[in-house]
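Technical appendix A lists one of the benchmark inputs used to test multi-chain prediction within the project. The record comprises two sequence entries:
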Amino acid sequence: MEGSEKNIKILKGNIIYTETSDLFNIVKNGYIVVQENYIVGVYDKLPEKFKNINIENYEDKLIIPGLIDLHTHASQFAIKGIGYDKELLPWLNTYTFVEEAKFKNISYATKIYKEFVDELYNEGTTRAVIFATIHTEATEILMNLLDEKGIVAYVGKVNMDRNCPDTLMENSDESIKNTLNWIQNCSKKYKFVKPIITPRFVPSCTSYLMNELGNIAINDTIPVQSHISENLSEIQWVKELHPECKNYGDVYDKFNLFGQTKTIMAHCVHLTEEEINKIKKNKVLIAHCPTSNVNLSSGIAPISKLLRKEVLIGLGSDIAGGECLSMLSVMASAIRMSKLRKVCFKEDEKSLTLKEVFYLATKGGGKFFGNVGSFEKGYEFDALVIDDDNLWKDNKGSIEERIERLVYLGNQKNIISRYICGREI
Amino acid sequence: MEGSEKNIKILKGNIIYTETSDLFNIVKNGYIVVQENYIVGVYDKLPEKFKNINIENYEDKLIIPGLIDLHTHASQFAIKGIGYDKELLPWLNTYTFVEEAKFKNISYATKIYKEFVDELYNEGTTRAVIFATIHTEATEILMNLLDEKGIVAYVGKVNMDRNCPDTLMENSDESIKNTLNWIQNCSKKYKFVKPIITPRFVPSCTSYLMNELGNIAINDTIPVQSHISENLSEIQWVKELHPECKNYGDVYDKFNLFGQTKTIMAHCVHLTEEEINKIKKNKVLIAHCPTSNVNLSSGIAPISKLLRKEVLIGLGSDIAGGECLSMLSVMASAIRMSKLRKVCFKEDEKSLTLKEVFYLATKGGGKFFGNVGSFEKGYEFDALVIDDDNLWKDNKGSIEERIERLVYLGNQKNIISRYICGREI
């Protein structure tokens, strides 16, 4: 017997995960053995040495890795589903900045962040990388709520010191000082939640600010998140703001915000080949946000091509460019957008398959957190148990068909148990 | 006082409809007066003559026209949300034909059709144009169920006499005979439901069969529905099957199935200019099925362009190419697809606006049924009452924003009352 029995947990059910993006690992009526936080193994027949341990028998249910949201704005939760007649820049000015300014008010922030965290939990998102606002006090409230809930998250106090309304404009030095204080205050405070350096995007941050944020990231080994190459007008704007840089990515790279520490870049719709190569070289993780990219008419990121180039990619709900926190819905959206990219451009481009988007929503995004998002040996045990009985009126299909229908027609009500870091929450 | 009081119904609430596709008609806290089945008027202040009539006060709720589904396959209800890795023709062979063959079995047909009709009701679809299967007995069961529910529908017994599996292949003369008997049997049997001539699509029907179906349509003044120009392989196949015809539309036109009686053609993704002109001239109504068109990688129909050409258009859920009967979801899908068409093709193409898709889902599709889908004077009164309280955590937005959020985030639970032909069902 490995370890003491009381640290071992065994779940039984139909187990599905993806070691690679081109294959489902499926064990029907199989067993997952977990010791402490970590997977010991997945078995179709339970090894003799575990025979005396109690089994959580989920019978015909599906057991999948927890879903990972690599990019979302908790502070935009109250404005989802409106304003989608606008593209990115007017949408930011008309809706987003007005809403984010409200987070100076702690009681408003508490109310909205509580709703956000509850919904994140309900939708089965086990780990997330999140934008808050410039307000450090409200940002810590969000971090508290996530930690209490047991959701693993990186949360960013946003930095902005140019091209934004007065209500959100920071003095550059204060922005840096507040960021340092905030990091010091919250770095070791939480069990599940960590800070992430969050320059909003190039147009909102002066070179001075970006430079200092890059220094903080490197000095304190703090990861970084931002937006890149979402919309053509935004890209043109960045070009005008930084004629000294070769491209959008080059601006972040110059300031050590492009993979010098662990980095997520959201959107990546219109990257140049040079930017793609740099992203791959620097191991920047792309957060693909298909729903947001269509809602704000940004375009369709070439994810299938990027996958074949072995760039790191996960999925993001991008609330409130996306209207919905459900990563199942984002998976369906990713498939749909890739089909339209193929149909419209008739390039040597492939549609994303079900297994590819499943991989992106689990192991792909999980890489930002370490060995996360799969049921391979040694991975942290995050899982969802799915009851899909209501989706099948007659006999159920194959396991792969059950996953497909879950992605297209399932919702939070199909999730009956959530495990994060080995613990049921 | 016009008419007797007991034939007049008054509803109060926030009233939204579209007389044209470029404008919302909105009356906040307004009154709809209905006499028998028909709208007398919409008022912001109730005229004196109606003062003694009881008011159904829906307070801050939204009152919108009933939603119209111009194209859906009741017989594919059990296979929604699977098989979307395939394009149209392999999808038909692998999933659809296998499923439709099951409708020879009356108990299976009854079970699935009952679930379909319940869901149609739940989703707030007040009128629909529906494909059944080749089986007349099962088709009549579907018609019975719809009529009992009070949903207005055209239902088609499908005709197929070539290029399909034996289980669905009809002998041409029997197909014609069965169709004639079926029409005779059901033409006057129902209050809300009528038959519609339904050649599946050109590849499934011989010229002989199409010719006879066109004759029946004209002789008995029966409307027609079919598919056209959904997928490039399908179009190529039709070209090979009918080298004597100029294009796909020309095949139907030759056999009097293209507007000679009231006609719906579903999809219209890749129409030629010549076909578009013929569709306009013949007043064929296009059923735009955006969700299905992306799920089966068919493409994006140029709906904004067609709208500006003043072609008649409505929306279709196209279960099971589409995975969902909700016309709210189809409306969101139509907006999304149009944005991607604009982004990808960078043509002189506009995205569809919220008011345009609202128009398509109500008055646009309603035209197939007469004066339906609007709250203009003399229109038949079909309406949904919407409680969107759960969609707004803080203060509600404008009426237009409430409609937008309903389309993106609402579902059947937001529909609290349904009226069809002046009657609450």
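DSSP finds 13 helices and 17 strands in chain A. The domain at 8-65+373-424 of chain A is CATH 2.30.40.10 (Urease, subunit C; domain 1). Comparable benchmark entries are summarised in Table A2.
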